[in-house]
Design a protein that fits this description.
Blueprint lengths: L2 H20 L5 H16 L3 H30 L4 H17 L4 H14 L5 H42 L1
Helix pairs in contact: 1-2, 1-6, 2-3, 2-6, 3-6, 4-5, 5-6
């Protein structure tokens, strides 16, 4: 496969990974890392491939840790584990009822309804806002990491194509 064809193919994978990191459906950074590895395999593995894939792997690990740790802070800021489970169940149900927008909507309703029986509506709303804020921050961080990964691959691709 030629350099241009490999670059276009990998660029499509990276683009889907970027979109996937903005939507909670596709594991964007993992897909971008797969694209990086694919690019190295298609063009012949060299020193650049090793460095870029190693950096990409480190960023995926950081992304995974932060994707767990940031929302977990919601439990220490007022939302219980039960609320997180309720949010997850609501999010999954919402995803199938109303594709794409149903996930965050279902999450919100799930957290609120799970917290409501154990407290008043005001406290349930505070817990809901706390979890939404935590997941929003995590999503922004994860999108930022995916963007950095895409830029690193882009630099590698430009170096490959234009010397």
């Amino acid at each position: 496969m030629g350099e241009w064809a490999a670059t276009v193919l990998t660029g499509l994978v990276v683009a889907v990974g970027l979109v996937g990191s903005a939507l909670p459906i596709v594991p964007g950074p993992v897909l971008i890392l797969a694209g990086m590895a694919l690019y190295g395999l298609l063009l012949g593995w060299d020193g650049w491939a090793t460095v870029v894939v190693a950096i990409g792997t480190a960023l995926v690990i950081i992304d995974t840790v932060l994707g767990i740790r940031i929302p977990a802070r919601a439990t220490t800021a007022g939302a219980g584990r039960r609320a997180l489970v309720g949010g997850a169940v609501g999010g999954i149900a919402g995803f199938f009822i109303i594709p794409v927008v149903g996930l965050p909507l279902g999450w919100t309703v799930g957290v609120f309804l799970t917290e409501l029986p154990s407290s008043d509506a005001r406290r349930a709303w505070v817990a809901t806002r706390t979890t939404l804020r935590s997941f929003g921050v995590a999503a922004l961080v994860q999108f930022g990491i995916a963007l950095v990964m895409a830029l690193i691959w882009g630099i590698w691709a430009m170096r490959t194509l234009f010397g």
